[in-house]
Amino acid sequence: MSKHFKQDWTPRQDSKENPARRNQTRRAFLALSAGALVALGVGAALAQTPSKNDAASTNGGTLGNDNAAKTPAAPDAPNDPRAAQLAVDPNAQTEWNYKNNGEKIVYLTFDDGPSKNTQRVLDILDQYGAKATFFVVGHDPDHYDMIKKAYDDGNTIGLHSFTHDYAQVYSSEDAYFNDLDQIAQVVSDQIGYVPYLVRFPGGSSNTISEKYCSGIMDVLVNDVPARGYQYYDWNASSGDGATCSTDQVIQNSCAYDNYPNIILLCHDAATKDTTVEALPKIIEHYQALGYQFQAIDRTTMVPHHKVAN
Ligand SMILES: [Zn+2]
Asked: How much distance in Å is there from the Cα of 50 to the middle of ligand 1?
């Protein structure tokens, strides 16, 4: 599983050409202008204008709606220093890069929660002094409070999908962003702001989306960053997307000793008991090698897979 994955782990060489970068100079100018207007008491609402224009101009006008404007650029949690850093902000984009920082760090990423398993994951993280990143979905309203709990423990929250229904999410660009807005609302209700971190269902290299909308990933990998989000794929996999024994999850996850920065794909959905059972051994393996377990932030490497649809 992990071997197969490594072959797929191909950095996108064309990402530097994304529209966000092309518009950087103009955005910087507009941000300065907006800042000056705010200083003059004109109001912060104007600061959202560039992102809206960019979103419309970079995809043939098919996104001529107000999705970008709906995304709050200013955090609702003024007393939370992490909000200032992690809130989505079209004027403070995190650029794609796959350069590791030379330190031994594991970034555990848990997709498809919160669920009945999330508390178990948090307990293990706490036991080992480890932090992680949770890319959440909207399946289980009974456990939405775990999003806040995970965040309050020092973990990072990212957006995965509200429905995680490929047929729906990847039926069109509008459908994708409508779904993203829904999970953004769930997260915002829990932590007070919309985080900039996104993980595509199936990753950016998924081919299943082709069944529903040919070429949609090519479009989304530009439009998501243009709205101030950044998407994170992974450079290591626990293999737990498939049914996996505890030992298999451990074996898959512990195969990356030669990577300085490991962004490990895991799941904390209700069915992923073996992942929870494997977690202590995975953490012990890497801690013994001198790795730290940190939550993703804007300084973390940003792995992008090669788009295949
Ligand atoms: Zn998922």
From this structure: 31
Centre of ligand 1 to C-alpha 240, Å, is 11
- Cα(111) to ligand 1 centroid in Å equals 5
pTM: 0.78
Distance set, CA 91 to CA 23, 47, 167, 198 (Å): 11, 8, 32, 17
> In angstroms, what is the span from residue 53 Cα to ligand 1's centroid?
30
Query: Which residue from 210, 105, 212, 195 is spatially nearest to 156, judged by alpha carbons?
Result: 195
Place of tokens 């459908």: 175
**DSSP-based helix, strand, coil % in the chain, nearest 5:** 45, 10, 45
CATH of domain 2-293: 3.20.20.370
pLDDT of the residue at 76: 52
> In degrees, to the nearest 5, what angle opens at C-alpha 24 toward C-alphas 23 and 29?
100
